[in-house]
Write a structure and sequence with these properties.
Strand content: 25-35%
Structural class: alpha+beta
Helix content: 10-25%
CATH architecture of the domain at 64-170: Beta Barrel
Radius of gyration: 28 Å
CATH superfamily of the domain at 64-170: L,D-transpeptidase catalytic domain-like
Length: 171
């Protein structure tokens, strides 16, 4: 059948006959004693919980949250991170990335900058009227106000966001 997953049959459990044979060297009395012996002082182990990360520093309305001072971004849903933190690079002092609330305007998978020497800006998600976007690119230097991400993170942001989604950038 196409598209269906098939499970392997579950391993067979030992039958009572097999279990009795395995315990035979210990004798019936020893087996009964082992089965009835309480575990002295043993308390059930508490389940291990992963450490709780701090929630992203944006409002519950944000679909993507950017913290410029921490150089991180998260995809979010109702204030909870669904992806991230992702390392980012943002604008310079001369060309800063603005803070505030923005709306995704458009997306371009293979955008090339006309303003900055035909620089490639793959996985672009534009969020303001000045041409700023999330996009893939080198994080070794500052941008001209865009949010640069590693390739896989930029692709994830591009895939997750749609025009009209909320962008929140804080410092």
């Amino acid at each position: 059948m196409v598209g269906r997953h098939h499970r392997s049959p579950a391993p067979r459990r030992a039958t009572s006959h097999t279990a009795r044979r395995a315990l035979a060297p210990f004798g019936v009395a020893s087996a009964a004693l082992l089965a009835a012996a309480p575990l002295a002082g043993a308390a059930p182990a508490a389940p291990q919980q992963p450490p709780q990360a701090d929630p992203p520093p944006c409002s519950d309305a944000a679909d993507v949250c950017v913290d410029l001072s921490e150089e991180q971004a998260w995809l979010t849903d109702d204030g909870r991170a669904t992806s991230g933190p992702m390392a980012i690079t943002s604008g310079s002092d001369e060309d800063p990335t603005p803070t505030g609330e923005f709306t995704v305007q458009r997306k371009e998978r293979h955008h090339v900058s006309r303003e900055f020497g035909r620089a490639p800006m793959p996985w672009s998600v534009f969020f303001d009227d000045e041409g700023r976007a999330f996009h893939s690119g080198s994080r070794a230097s500052t941008s001209h106000g865009c949010i640069r991400l590693d390739k896989d993170d930029a692709r994830d942001v591009f895939t997750a966001l749609e025009p009209g989604d909320q962008v929140e950038i804080v410092r």
